[in-house]
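Lecture notes, unit on protein representations.

Consider one protein chain, 180 amino acids long.
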Amino acid sequence: MLDVRTIGDPGTGDFGIADRAEAKLGLSEPSVDFESDGGRLSEAAALRGSPGNGKQSGFRRLAIKTAEICGKPLTFAAAVLIVVVWGVSGPIFHYSDTWQLVINTGTTIVTFLMVFLIQATQNRDTAAIQLKLDELIMATKEARDLVAAAEDLSDEELDALKKQVKARKANEEANGGSDS
């Protein structure tokens, strides 16, 4: 079986991927037991608060709530209504520069702010999905726990790891160990 520890310099003890993965997974840190979730967290995580304790920054709460509101059909309908009202009001304002400036400025400001809110929400969702995948990897006997921290690797290390995974898959298929 291939091991991620084959990447690195055994003479110096620098295994690159393995060391960073262990640090990411908290395998080398002392742990604190939280009775509320039955799991174990590093001391750094304990200082930030236990999972699910509801302690989130104001920006994080704003981003989550805004994403909830903006993703609803009613919000889309309200945006369409605003555009229709603006369009219908054109003749009243004689299609003036100010009339055009109102919609241009409004849409620019909303778009600018939404980019950051959407990115914050997407970052949170991606981190949550990654944690769930990490947990599944660590719970699977045949999987290597060190792969769970692959998102923190450099491009070169990811390429090397990808080659190892492909070689492992080819080896399993050659030995008849593939389920697919």
